[in-house]
Design a protein that fits this description.
The chain is an alpha+beta fold and 134 residues long. It is built from three helices and six strands; from the N terminus they run αββββαββα. The chain has one domain. Strands 1-4-6-5 form a four-stranded mixed sheet. Strands 2-3 form a two-stranded antiparallel sheet.
Length: 134
């Protein structure tokens, strides 16, 4: 028995799948382009740069933490997120992404977010210390 898939079916399937693939690639590229550098001072206070509009995500170079163990960085990042800020490690780019959860504080400006991040600094320092102990 000879089984062949009609060319018209393959063509129709390609037309159906291609737009979704292109949309996913476009969204990924837009997110990468939208990253803005996050500042970190010696007291481990993170701060967003002054801007008229808030970025969807901010990135911090892992090297800025003074940590070289990727597993320790991942442990630290895992404990840093809360309901207002989400942190993710991007191992490929060797950065940590901070994603403010704007839906919960839509009226906050950069100054409000920076005040909040300043309040979190002791917790962030503690997570770094704990991550390096393992």
């Amino acid at each position: 028995m000879d089984f062949r898939i009609p060319r018209s079916f393959v063509f129709s399937l390609a037309l159906l799948v291609l737009p979704f693939t292109m949309q996913a690639q476009s969204a990924s590229k837009t997110a990468e382009e939208a990253s803005v550098t996050l500042q970190l001072n010696d007291a481990f206070v993170l701060s967003l740069p002054d801007a008229e509009t808030m970025a969807p995500q901010y990135e911090l170079a892992v090297a800025d933490l003074g940590m070289t163990d990727t597993k320790a960085v991942q442990r630290m990042v895992n404990g840093m997120s809360d309901n207002l800020v989400r942190f993710r490690l991007n191992e490929d780019a060797n950065t940590i992404l901070l994603e403010p959860q704007y839906q919960y504080k839509s009226d906050w400006k950069v100054e409000d977010w920076n005040t909040y991040l300043q309040e979190l600094a002791p917790r962030f320092r503690r997570h770094k210390e704990l991550a390096q102990q393992h």
